[in-house]
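dumping this here so i dont lose it again. seq + smiles for N-acetylmannosamine-6-phosphate
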Amino acid sequence: MLIPKGALVVSCQARADNPLHGPVHMAAMARAAEQGGARGIRANGADDIAAIRAVSALPIIGIAKVWTDRFPVYITPGFAQAAEIAGAGADIIGLDATPRPRDGEPVEILIGRIRSELGREVFADIATLEEGRAAHAAGTTYVATTLAGYTEGTASRKAGGPDLDLLSALVAELPLPIVAEGRFDTPDLVAEAFRRGAHAVVVGTAVTNPREITKKFVQAAP
Ligand SMILES: CC(=O)N[C@H](C=O)[C@@H](O)[C@H](O)[C@H](O)COP(=O)(O)O
């Protein structure tokens, strides 16, 4: 199942230190997002993905985050993780498509295997135009700005909101659906992403992380 053009996708993720961690809460988040009009869900890990699949027919971008001290890549580093989340019900496999060291096959091989062996679409999280080009050449279905501001070379871009310049550059050059993701935390920014030609926009923290949302309001308190 593909992400429709013009879709707002909601990322339903909560790490282990978050009180909302776990499939029960993430499935409820996904249902709430769907009732609010989301037309896709992004979710992490087989347990959350299976729980969301059980309550929603929306397209799911599944990822599997694996943190280690040895490799910078943590979003679906290898084929084993991709196969697990495909089995849990992900329609689309999200992965880190930067050329950084990873605990798995080179990303262009991984993209090909996901398409041919798992029969799933691929959602390439990138941080630069060059990485977008490479992901396109490797056969990804989508390219997304997810990692802009979160890699060594792009860290300086994190402070100024979402990387709208990267979004525009990708849209101008690449003939595939470009998804805006990362720090799109207001409806105005979502509208701006669509004006710039985004196929879809993924919003996470601003919708599904009450702890971070609360912090913003607390900052406004005396
Ligand atoms: C960099 C990284 O690991 N991003 C993650 C990817 O899955 C998530 O932590 C983000 O919440 C997601 O991309 C949505 O972005 P935002 O929460 O800013 O709307």
